[in-house]
């Protein structure tokens, strides 16, 4: 049986999980590929550190360049994270004609165009299934399973930490800061949680999904990004009363004027399956013009879940080693990638949830509805809390019909200028996902 040697750049949580899953499932993997996949060498920061996997038979080195320069290694798996030295090492591996597998979503989102071009020049594969949604094979779905479709839109819960926080806020009525501390204690959130709770991690993944969906070059800078740190238990409760749940959603949509790429808190009708994805789980809905909406659900992180995606890429490469037929990196032929306009968030059309703190005085609702009407905004639902006495402060909660964001921005400026309005209006976008 042919032996394919693999080198790991990094032997931490995912690297160790990769070694363990390869060992556990070696017989089935060999039956699927017709070859024996062997991790022969791995680069680590600390040679003395204990590992979550057995390292017998694996040569450990503190110099990652040793992996690149090993002539017997055919596939390099990058699990270091960060943009450098990962980018330099991957480029070096590609130039030497080695296939590369990576779980590095930030690297692909920011430098994927350059890296894919280098892989194409050298007729090798740069695979990245593990970069998005952990064990959910969403890249394969987009690049292979749905290729007969024109993708109209996709929406995903693609950061488990943010989803865990919103779930706990809903179930326990806890404040954001308290649940964030809990997530850190459980190991779901880093000491510096900004990438998760401010939407940067999800934006990296959405950028890649949008390119797969619409056949455009990667353009991370055009992704509108908004985090969940301003969500309060009050908004979570009001959303529930209106029949919605708040999720941190990544949305990509193609329309006549360009493509939308946006990550932000979103109200979703509670009857939608994706609205019931809780805890650290991930899910992606993809709407194709032939198949309709399809949902993909699973574990978005963790040693063996992510290792599952890493090894699936390694297996695909093994199957292609004897073939010149390499799948395009983003699912479309390189020369067919389109340069479409990326819409500003101000030009995006959505419905809105509005929470307005007002003094309960005569004419306040008329003034609010007038401000909305003057900007051609219709109201779908109103929820107004009772107050103990005339003139006290209360919350008015509105659901609007779909409107261009810049019209809503102008309407909110008009509402906030009213004497009866207290402070800024809370707005959260609403998606029906039909």
3D architecture notes:
The chain is α/β, with parallel strands linked by helices and 434 residues long. It folds into three domains: 2-134 and 303-336, Rossmann fold (3-Layer(aba) Sandwich), CATH 3.40.50.720; 138-299, Dihydrodipicolinate Reductase, domain 2 (2-Layer Sandwich); 348-430, Alpha-Beta Plaits, CATH 3.30.70.260. The protein is built from 14 helices and 17 strands. The strands form two sheets. Strands 7, 8, 9, 10, 11, 12, 13, 14, 15, 16 and 17 form an eleven-stranded mixed β-sheet that branches. A six-stranded parallel β-sheet has the order 3-2-1-4-5-6, with helices on both faces. β4 (73-78), α4 (86-95) and β5 form a beta-alpha-beta unit. The radius of gyration is 24 Å and the shape is elongated. The mean pLDDT is 93.
Characteristics of this structure?
434 residues, alpha/beta, Rossmann fold, Dihydrodipicolinate Reductase, domain 2, Alpha-Beta Plaits, 3 domains, 11-stranded mixed beta sheet, 6-stranded parallel beta sheet, 14 helices, 35% helix
């Amino acid at each position: 049986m042919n032996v394919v040697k693999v080198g790991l750049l990094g032997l931490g949580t995912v690297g160790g999980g990769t070694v363990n899953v390869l060992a556990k499932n070696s017989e089935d993997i060999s039956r699927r590929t017709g070859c024996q996949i062997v991790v022969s060498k791995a680069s680590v920061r600390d040679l003395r550190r204990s590992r979550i996997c057995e390292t017998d038979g694996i040569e450990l080195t503190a110099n990652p360049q040793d992996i690149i320069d090993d002539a017997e290694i055919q596939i390099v798996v990058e699990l270091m994270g960060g943009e450098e030295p990962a980018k330099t090492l991957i480029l070096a591996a590609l130039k030497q004609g080695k296939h590369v597998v990576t779980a590095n979503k930030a690297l692909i989102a920011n430098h994927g165009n350059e890296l894919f071009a280098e892989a194409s020049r050298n007729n090798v594969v740069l695979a990245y299934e593990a970069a998005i949604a952990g064990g959910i094979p969403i890249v394969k779905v987009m690049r292979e399973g749905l290729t007969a479709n024109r993708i109209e839109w996709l929406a995903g819960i693609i950061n488990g930490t943010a989803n865990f926080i919103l779930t706990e806020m809903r179930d326990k009525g806890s404040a954001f800061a308290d649940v964030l501390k809990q997530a850190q204690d459980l190991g779901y959130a880093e000491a510096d949680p900004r990438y998760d709770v401010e939407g940067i991690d999800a934006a990296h993944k959405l950028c890649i999904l949008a390119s797969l969906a619409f056949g455009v070059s990667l353009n991370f800078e055009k992704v509108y990004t908004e985090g969940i740190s301003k969500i309060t238990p009050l908004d979570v409760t009001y959303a529930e009363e209106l029949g919605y749940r708040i999720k941190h959603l990544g949305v990509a949509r193609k329309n006549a004027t360009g493509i939308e790429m946006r990550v932000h808190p979103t109200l979703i009708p509670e009857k939608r399956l994706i609205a019931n994805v809780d805890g650290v789980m991930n899910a992606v809905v993809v709407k194709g013009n032939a198949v309709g909406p399809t949902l993909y659900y699973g574990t978005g992180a963790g040693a063996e879940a992510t290792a599952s995606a890493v090894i699936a890429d390694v297996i695909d490469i093994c199957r292609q080693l004897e073939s010149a037929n390499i799948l395009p990196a983003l699912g479309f032929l390189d020369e067919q990638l389109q340069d479409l306009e990326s819409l500003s968030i101000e030009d995006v059309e959505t419905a809105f949830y509005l929470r307005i703190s007002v003094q309960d005085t005569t004419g306040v609702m008329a003034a609010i509805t007038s401000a909305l009407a003057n900007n051609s905004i219709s109201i779908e639902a109103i929820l107004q809390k009772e107050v103990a006495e005339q003139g006290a402060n209360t919350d008015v909660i509105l659901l609007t019909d779909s409107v261009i964001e810049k019209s809503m921005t102008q309407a909110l400026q008009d509402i906030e200028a009213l004497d009866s309005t207290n402070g800024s209006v809370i707005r959260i976008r609403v998606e029906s996902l039909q």
